[in-house]
């Protein structure tokens, strides 16, 4: 998919960019999150089926996973079971960009929407 063809959805202090295209029917959702300083997924935990792979491309990203905190910096990665309560935020003073790949989720579920619609 060409970069200018990506579906882009802005939310408060961030941008979601889909990477998988609209014609692919497997249960995998790759996307890029770009977050301004202080941006977060919101006050509520995110829970869905499947697994989540996060790769911090630049900046800092904090993931809270079932009462554990993971501090990711550029080049760091995290792989979690998405059934665990999780949230994310950019605790840094600069823009953060992360590649997120969600896979193995239930048919009909749209886990990407849980990640960007609640973003603050």
What would your notes on this structure say?
The strands form two sheets. A six-stranded antiparallel beta sheet has the order 1-2-3-9-4-7. The chain is built from one helix and nine strands. Strand 5 and strand 6 (68-73) form a beta hairpin. The termini are far apart. The chain is mainly β. The radius of gyration is 13 Å and the shape is globular.
Summary of the model, kept short:
The protein has 120 residues and is mostly beta strands.
Radius of gyration of CA atoms, rounded to a whole number: 13 Å
According to DSSP, the number of beta strands is 9
Helical region count?
1
In whole angstroms, the N-to-C terminal distance is 28 Å
Mean pLDDT: 82
Unreliable stretches, pLDDT < 50, 5 or more residues?
none
Estimate the helix proportion, in percent: under 10%
- Helix-strand string: EEEEEEEEEH
Record the strand order, biggest sheet: 1-2-3-9-4-7
Backbone structural class? mainly beta
Biggest sheet details = 6 strands, antiparallel
Fraction of residues in β-strands: over 45%
**What is the molecular shape?**
globular
What layout of secondary structure does this protein have?
Blueprint: E1 8-11, E2 14-18, E3 28-35, E4 51-58, E5 60-65, E6 68-73, E7 77-81, E8 86-89, E9 96-103, H1 111-116
Antiparallel strand pairs: 1-2, 2-3, 3-9, 4-7, 4-9, 5-6, 5-8
List keywords for this structure.
120 residues; mainly beta; 3-stranded antiparallel β-sheet; 1 helix
């Amino acid at each position: 998919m060409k970069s200018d063809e990506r579906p882009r959805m802005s939310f408060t202090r961030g941008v979601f960019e889909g990477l998988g295209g609209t014609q692919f029917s497997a249960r995998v959702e790759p996307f890029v999150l770009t977050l301004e300083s202080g941006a977060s997924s919101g006050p509520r935990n995110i829970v869905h089926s499947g697994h989540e792979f996060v790769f911090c491309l630049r900046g800092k990203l904090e993931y809270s996973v079932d009462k554990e905190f993971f501090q990711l910096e550029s080049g760091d990665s995290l792989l979690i079971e998405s059934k665990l309560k999780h949230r994310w935020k950019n605790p840094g003073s600069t823009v953060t960009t992360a590649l997120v790949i969600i896979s193995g989720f239930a048919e009909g579920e749209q886990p990407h929407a849980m990640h960007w619609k609640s973003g603050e």
